[in-house]
Each structure stands twice: as C-alpha cells, then as structure tokens.
Design goal:
By secondary structure, the chain is mainly α. The chain is 70% helix and 0% strand. It has a domain at 61-194: Tetracycline Repressor, domain 2.
Length: 195
C-alpha cells in the first residue's frame, strides 16, 4: 500500500492526532516523523521548525472550532447564541483536548494573520452583536467571555470540580447565565465605572 504524500496538511494532521492522545508537549518533530514513517529531516521541506508546526496545529484548531461555533450560533441571538458559543468551546475541548491545548498557547504571527483566526473572531463578534456592546468595548467583552470559558474548561479538565457538589454542569449553566447578565448590562456598567 502506497504511503500518503507528505505535505503540511498531513504533518499537521499527525500532530493534531498526537496532541489529542498524548498532549501538546508530546508533539515533537521526531515523534510526528515517526508516526508518518519518515525521517525527521523530511519534515523540514514542509514545516520550518517545531514552532511552525505548533502554529499550524493552532490554525487547524482555530478553524475547526470556528466552524463549530458557526453551526452552534446560526440563527440565534442573545442568550441562545452565547450558550451555543460556550457549548461549542466546551465540546471541542472535550473532543480534542490536545488541539484545545494548542489554542491556549501564545500564537505566532502566522496564526494571528490566518483566515482561521479571522473566522474565529467573526463568530465571537456575531454573538456580541446580540448584546449591543459599543464597538470600543468589544475587545474587552471578547476577553471577558474567552477568559470565563477557558478558565472553566481548564479547571474542569484538570479535575478541579470533580470532588464537590453540585455537578460541574450546574456551575456551567450559572456561568453562561451570569455572562449573559453581564453582557446585557455592559454599556451601562462601563459608563457607571467611568463616571
């Protein structure tokens, strides 16, 4: 049976599978080469170095997550859209823990300029449009929502919620409702804070 052609997509795909099964730290050029049954130098014709490989993995994850978010928020607004956004992130983290981990690293310039990053940003901004947040405050709102989702998902991932009641799902619902309440009051709250 002929081996699949070696290209950047195949290399990043192998890295993504490895990250999901063994964690992002396990993603090395030599390990990806072993999975693909090639010698490590063969990878350098397609990826510059380990940082570029991990950036490729982050771009892949951003694109996949953005697609999930798009499906989850289509035709929704306000709390329903926010819930869709949050559930898409939490579900992606559960389904692809290594790829999720790749989203939690400092991204290189290639990631920031990627179509996947733009696509992901559009999904978040679409949700915020349902809350009528002033354009100058949207970056702050994105950061607050992202921090809440990422913090909860990370704590859940490491088992921080496993030893007490109520179940984490109950707290997840509270988180979404409180984010919704904050976003609905955002412009008034920020105006009061500057008065």
């Amino acid at each position: 049976m002929a081996r699949a052609p070696l290209n950047e997509n195949a290399i990043v795909g192998a890295a993504a599978g490895l990250a999901d099964t063994a964690g992002l730290a396990a993603v090395t050029l030599s390990e990806v080469a072993r999975i693909l049954s090639v010698r490590t130098p063969s990878l350098y014709g397609h990826v510059r170095d380990l940082a570029a490989l991990r950036d490729g993995l982050t771009i892949l994850a951003l694109g996949e997550l953005a697609d999930r978010v798009g499906e989850a928020i289509a035709g929704r607004a306000g709390l329903d859209a926010l819930r869709g956004l949050c559930e898409a992130h939490r579900g992606y983290a559960r389904d692809h823990p290594g790829r999720w981990e790749a989203l939690q690293r400092r991204a290189g310039a290639a990631v920031v300029r990627s179509d996947a990053a733009l696509h992901a940003g559009r999904g978040m901004l679409a949700v915020l449009r349902g809350y009528d947040i002033a354009e100058g405050d949207q970056v702050h709102a994105v950061r607050v929502v992202a921090a809440a989702i990422n913090g909860f998902v990370e704590l859940e991932h490491v088992g921080s919620f496993a030893h007490s009641d109520p179940p984490a799902d109950d707290s997840w619902d509270v988180l979404i409702l409180q984010l919704d309440a904050l976003l609905r009051r955002w412009n008034r709250t920020t105006a009061e804070g500057t008065a």
